[in-house]
Amino acid sequence: MVVRELNSWSVSPSEALNIQETLKKKLVLKKIKKNIHLLAGADVSYSKKNRKLYAAVTVMTFPELNEVEEATAGGDIHFPYIPGLLSFREAPILARAFKKIRRVPDVVIFDGQGIAHPRGMGLATHMGLMLDVPSIGCAKSRLFGTYEKIGNTAGDFSFLKADGMIVGVALRTRTNIHPIFVSPGYKTDIPGCIETIINTCRGYRIPEPIRQAHLLANQRRMKEL
To answer: Which segments of 132-204 does DSSP mark as H helices, in order?
Structure first.
């Protein structure tokens, strides 16, 4: 895949904030134009022993969710852990993995935030801009916004709101299991994100594309250790 270099990664936290403010002006949110045939999931695994991180990308057919391609990449950590600046820690290694992918997915699901972010520039949004591909943020914890009580049945959701705007949803993907937090990344909208995530959760809390990417990243990490 082609990965656009939109900014430098050798920056300070304050410079990273300025980059996010600049990039959010390029944000596009809209319905997915074409039918989804290929989905990708992306995740990053960390090693506490050697201060490295490992990215994985899995590409699957949709709606069957048969894996057709995968790629991994490993490297050193070059940016501190700062909530809201995750892309400056993970995007460089994810970009290396995506460059190995031959097929261009119709949608990419990231283990991270989309626009449900203080500056509307979560990992899924940043990477969506870099890939110029529709993207969805799917996080296991809430970073930004508030929501009301959700029903306990799979498919129930509550809108995630911040500053008077709807930025995503808290979505129940399994009955009586904690919700996940879904938001558009780039060139997607909230209804499309909900539909895509529901249709890719196959008995687990998280969507199958990022579940498989998570397993693959951990395999790469364990192999190197």
So the answer is: 190-198
CB atoms < 10 A from the CB of 65, how many?
A: 17
Q: What is the pLDDT of residues 99-158, one digit of tens each?
A: 999 999 999 999 999 999 999 999 999 999 999 999 999 999 999 999 999 999 999 999
Burial 125-153 (b: 16+ CB within 10 A, else e): bbbbbbbebbbbbbbeebbbbebeeeeee
Alpha-carbon distance values, 107 to 124, 144, 186, 198, 222 (Å): 11, 23, 10, 14, 28
Q: In the numeric block, which tokens belong to residue 114? A: 């989309």
pLDDT in the model for residue 160: 98
Rounded-to-integer distance, Cα 214 and Cα 33, Å = 28
Distance of CA 190 to the CA centre of its chain: 14
DSSP string of 21-51, one letter each residue: HHHGGG-------S---EEEEEEEEEETTTT
- CA separation for the pair 205, 66 (Å, rounded): 19
Q: List the one residue out of 106, 2, 12, 26 whose CA is nearest residue 59.
A: 106
Phi, psi (rounded to 5 degrees) for 59: -115, 130
* Side chain identity, residue 71: A
For the chain, count helices (H), then strands (E). Answer: 5, 8
For the chain, the distance separating the N- and C-terminal CA atoms, rounded to the nearest angstrom, is 28
Q: What parts of the chain have a pLDDT lower than 50?
A: none
| Residue 98: Cβ within 10 Å count | 25
pLDDT of residue 85: 98
